[in-house]
Amino acid sequence: MAAPLVLTGQCGRQSNCPHFGSVRPLLTDVVEKVGVAGIGAVHHGCNAVTALVASIVGTSVMATRERAGKMVLARAFLMVAATVLLLTSPVRAADLTLRFDGQVRVLSQAQLLASPAAIDIAIPQTSVQAKAVPLLDLLDGLPTAHVDTLEIQALDGFVSQIPMDLVRRSAQGGSTALVAVEDPDHPWPRLPNGTASAGPFYLVWQHPDRSGITSEQWPYQVLSVTGVESPVRRWPQIAVAPDTPADAPARRGQDVFIAQCMPCHKMRGGGAAEVGPDLGQPMPAAAYLTEAGLRALIRDPRAVRTWPEQRMVGFDPSILSDVDLDAVVAYLEQMAAQHP
To answer: What is the CATH number of domain 95-229?
Structure first.
């Protein structure tokens, strides 16, 4: 008798997804075609069917036959099934969770869509307009006075550390942060080369050039916003040595790393993201990659190495200037020197 097929996502948790009932018949039919009996599911804590689909397609899926002891790869079949499901299943309502100094505020899509502060805004990477609420309005009444940083957690493990000052600057004519809300009755289109939309919530900016908003400060598939200390205070191990000159490229590189790299990578265990490898341990990235290799990897990862689950996209000069590239390489090299 064949062993059950288990789908395991990045979180490593196996659960009975409340929406998996609608998926089971379709996927069961698919796996029967490769001779595998039984099926289980995993998702990352989001109750949207699209989240389940994303976890199915974004995970390594193997079916084990007990009798033969042979591994059967069912990915291609599951991807087809997941695509069909994505196109035919409705998006379920989701909540946005705000956490500040022990206070928790949970806002539903319906609440945000009905907010009197909501405006229409274009959703990046799509041709659609959506309702968006200024982030400062959502934080009104929460204890944010002493908050340094907003930690914004996304469904796929991306975690952006956004300085609270960037958000506050909207009151002085700076960029304005808004939370765009996906309407469950009118789902957004899938992201380019993706299996799900940018919903249920997307942090977008009006006039991003006014405050120098970077490419990684636009997190989508947002689940929560938490008020925290600055990354350097939370994780001192990511900081360059105190005697590093203020105008040293490595010090600038630290800021670039926090804004552009930490949403996916940790540094010596410091950070909250789980998408990419730690660039400081067990061996620092600059210890096993040459300077030329680091530069090439940052600009175009696929020109350096490729694998089926590769997720990193390149940072071309329009996103990361040559000066900032020099700075982040200097930072990685200094971190390797500080922690050999």
So the answer is: 3.90.420.10
